[in-house]
Here is the input.
Amino acid sequence: MWDTWYVQQGETTHVYYLQTKIPNTKSKVPHTAIGHAISSDLLNWEELPGAIMPGDPNSPETAYDSGPLYTGSAVIHEGKFYNFYCGNHYCNYAENTPKNRQSMCLATSDDGTTFTKYEGNPIVEPTRGKYFNWFEELAPFQHHAHAWVDCRDMLVLKDPDNNGWLGYCVMRRKDAKDAFESSCIVLCKSDDLYHWTVGEPICTPNRFNCFEVPDVFQLDGRWFMLALTGNGYGQSERWTDKDLTGGTIVFESDSPVEPFIEVKDNLLLSDKHGAAQGYSARTVERNGERLMLFTRRCPGEFGNRLSWPVLLKRAGSNPGDGLNACYWSGCDKLFTKTRTSLHNIVIDKDKPHTIENANAHSAWMLFANSANFNTVTISLGSGLDSQPSYQILVNRKNKSVRLLDGSGKEITSRTLATLRGDLTSFRIVNDDGLIALYLNDILAVNHCLPEYKAGSVSLSLSTETLLAELMYSAAQ
Here is the structure.
């Protein structure tokens, strides 16, 4: 799987996602279809039959989405599911023109499982003369991310003022001199979810040359927009930390129809040293909480996996303070505290405290809370010389965390720009080699260590005491 989007139906959450066939398998799943699963707790999912399939490239009526199906969003209105998705059509109509026509399309369903494509597709394409279109020459941009004309990833929501529906779609402006100025998210409007007008750009930071998967929602009186960007689209040195290479960024606005302004260095997910580890963040409101899920990219046999939910909170009470992605207490049900509870561990510098019995579990969580520590070193190892070991370094003064390999080389790191006050706690969650590191319960780093096997965990402290507890997976 890769990109995802969600819709809540009572106690059931539907996820629609872009499918990708696992290499060297006999799966009959179409490589470019839109998959479907449901959950009652966002932790355990039931996979259902694919929701939407690509069209027939040999039929003029269905060729508009005969290429790979890309990201969209879904809403439920008067009992009917409206699933918006991006269709691709490889054109090759003329020399020196883009080879790909990209547009937003619609499919509807009465049960959320069996969808019928709207006969009027596509429903949204770039306005001629204002945004680059598929039949035009490529933009002569120095930093162009790809040879496609952007019209994708539209997020649809109900206008809170009851003026129909709002859609936020990725496009590219024609009046720009560089891709950094061209890429934008455009506000579209509809009265009936079928017929749409393409309006003006509502998000134009002029410093990223490409966006993906925007999400828009209201939280505690402010409107927020999330978007994915990074060096993979051509830009570089766009953040204060020059080693960052991608991430999910945050924008704020007073209303859903006014410009969204970037909150600088507010990355809910971050990638470093060119390793994309978390992307395609989308949210769902459930039981009054705004929960974010994302795709965790893992090499080899792991494949891409859906993350556990994280809880979005405002980083401060003032406009422009941005968001924090926080540990969600709903994940506690995955663990049990009955096996080990550690309190007031006294650490000698020459004798780290070692927890040996973690090797029977593929998932564990370590939570430590203290106002006394300066630095903490957590060593992860299987206890076998043939298996690699890793280190996690938590620095209280710098409000930072680093993940190192056995040779001491940095794999990734993060300093949290939105962490207010002192750093007093950290949390490490391991799910079969998927490592999530939290500072004051704010997600700082998530990374896949496919070669890590659950084993001994040792703690070395710069101070004498640390209140900690280790929890194991409830299902062993």
Summary: Residues 93-98, 339-349 have pLDDT under 50 and may be disordered. The longest strand covers residues 261-272. The helical segments are 179-182.
